[in-house]
Amino acid sequence: MLMADSKPLSKATNTTAAGKAAQDAVRFDHVTISFQIRSGNEVIAVDGFDLGIQPKQFVALVGPSGCGKSTLLRAVAGLIDPTKGQVRVNAPDSLSGFARVAMVFQAPTLLPWKTVLGNVLYPVRFGTKRSGVDYSQRASELLDMVGLTRFRDAYPAELSGGMQQRVAICRALILDPDILLMDEPFSALDALTREELQFEVRRVHQKTGKTILFVTHSMSEAALLADRVVVMAAHPGRLKDDFLLDLPTDRDTATLDLPEFAGYVRRIRDGIYGQREGK
Ligand code: ADP
Ligand code: MG
Known about the structure:
Mean pLDDT: 87
Oligomer: single chain
Structural class: alpha/beta
Number of helices: 9
Bound molecules: adenosine-5'-diphosphate, magnesium ion
């Protein structure tokens, strides 16, 4: 039922869905990524991964530690190349592929000697700029969106962890990427701040219409945030389940009480632990 538009593409549908595939914001085609480790052995981080992500989709990639989530994000960011297969990022009007993909990590990694505003503006020095954009104004708008206007001249050490992560999100958005990659961005935060930021990132998605690929090992976080959940299993990292969520666009604490929400969390758990009996 919910699978119709988003089930993992088999080889056959891959060919027939070629027209549609061309519109994907991110496309993984039979992606295998392996690493040579010191013993000389090969670790297969991701094995035969197929996925097409539509523009503006909010996709949660959920799975146990070591299932290749970060590896896949790094491949989208162009930091590593697949051993086999292809990762395609569709950024139609980009000058250089890089400026259109931005990443937020678990640690905010702000520059301690720069102010909040300085940190948000930092990528402007290195990235591909668009002509006619006033980046200082854009930075102010982004800080306003996450409620940090008052702190624009503060230094990272003066901010809480949640505020620092908000700055990191603004920094990721400053060059107006098409695709926002988030790798367990809230894992280091306390539970209350984490919940606040989860709803915040949903709002950011609604406001900016970015394609978001959000990695988490939290099943409830995946179901709370995403429009689509991709479940992975480890050793080797591979796709286990892929489904759309039929939840209200605006998410809040009431979402957590919806029976559908509980059902989705259960489905993710089943995917991870491989207990699909009776389904
Ligand atoms: P996740 O983010 O889901 O926890 P990773 O993508 O970090 O998983 O890692 C997937 C697998 O690939 C793990 O077994 C990990 O040890 C291995 N791996 C990741 N990066 C490297 C690397 N640079 N060298 C060797 N092995 C790696
Ligand atoms: Mg990881």
